[in-house]
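Before the break, one more example. Copy the sequence into your notebook; we will annotate it together after we see the structure.
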Amino acid sequence: MALYLLFESASGYALFHAYGIDEIGQSVDAVRSSVLDLKRFSKAVKLAGFSPFSSAIDALNQCNAISEGIMTDELRNFLELNLPKVKEGKKAKFSVGVMEPKVGSHITEATGIPCQSNEYVQELLRAVRLHFDQFIDQLKPSDLEKAQLGLGHSYSRAKVKFNVNRVDNMVIQAIFLLDTLDKDVNSFSMRVREWYGWHFPELVKIVNDNYLYAKLAKFVTNKSDLSEKDIPALADLIGDEDKAKEIVEAAKASMGQDLSPVDLINVQQFAQRVMNLSEYRKNLYEYLVTKMNDIAPNLTSLIGEMVGARLISHAGSLSNLSKCPASTLQILGAEKALFRALKTRGNTPKYGLIFHSSFIGRASTKNKGRMARYLANKCSIASRIDCYSDVSSSIFGEKLREQVEERLDFYDKGVAPRKNLDVMKAAIEGMTNTASVEGEENGGTSAKKSKKKKSRAEADGDAMDLDKPANTSAAEVEPETEKKKKKKKHKLEEPQDQEMAATGDDETPKKKKKSRDASADDEPKTATEGKKKKKKSKTAGDD
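Here is what the structure looks like once it is written out:
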């Protein structure tokens, strides 16, 4: 069976025909040693076809497709043009060797061309890469190097842009820095306690918090200067007046040694550094909380900011975490214990980083493993929603948290939890409701804008009417007034008809009189005709 080699270079696609190599009896080491010689390799392999890329953008698109295991239309046309044609209903008498197995499987599914990717084919393709510039006459080694450098820069730039859009790198760096800051602040606080403890050892027993101790070390400096006047200021710092009085009394009877002013200044400066680090740690934590709410709102609402950020940083990215099954996510962070248990054939760990969640701590000892398995399942769902959904909302995370709470109640009290289907339906309804509310708000703003536009158009129309001559305006006003009169009469007649229907037949003559009067009002009449009609109506009423 003939073997063709598909090589994807930075300058284009190339197809080689390996006609002088017999795979049977060939070991990988023998092939590796033989392909280094160009003369021997050129006798066994020849160029069957070459299709250069049209531009750098085309090269980048082809490279992205190959890295994702997708066959493009250009690659398909190139293969169909340069490979031998296969008759319908018959098997191909050749195969194509490719470097990436995913690309080969896609080519086989789309075109039916048999592909293979093994160590033998990979060694041949490495030799093709080594001697590629010798097979193409017009291609110089410098041109190939330039094409490889430009494609490498554009490909890496595109990948970096993708990571910046996902923004999970910032979370990874923030959680690493937060952990190191915790260690540094603790070690520096212990150094402040030990350093200032030589001067004022009783302060350690009164104040336990590291940040407050650094504040007091900076405020007090020399214990001999403390007096009862400083009690209000100490109370403001600590928040407790009794402790402030205790500090003043302890300073009066302190057993610590005196320090020189230079030593006290150094202690004061170091305490200020510890305070600055503690304040920066608080700001960094707030930054991490906002970032996690933006990137993974469902995971944050389910398990918390710190544990969620540690899961993302341990997995490498949010997309990697979403690809992990629930069983892997459950023991994420306990790899050493897992491999030790597999090596010694002991019990495998039940939880890793998710142990720091409050749900595991609230569960009883016998239910910790079950709770960890259930929580890992929900975290896997939340991470996938955060990674692949276009709309960022924490509704699903809140519903998943409710499910975990119900599962805790089920383990402790035996209360039956809701079904997963019902909870997901409620979450979807909440999403649709929020979307509809946002749409109504947007519609209200657009309606206000349309009303403003209409009012402006009407004002412009009025201005145009004022600019028109008087004759045309008078002619247009008359039919409008007549229409308005008819509408008013019609509205007046409707309630009168209803009243007549309610009162009965006794008031029928009044209705006729009203209709006559209305018809008389419609026609233009002189003053004498109006007087005559009034007299006739009076005589008819006397009769």
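The two ends are 127 Å apart (CA to CA). Residues 525 and 531 are 10 Å apart (CA to CA). Try to locate both features in your own notes.
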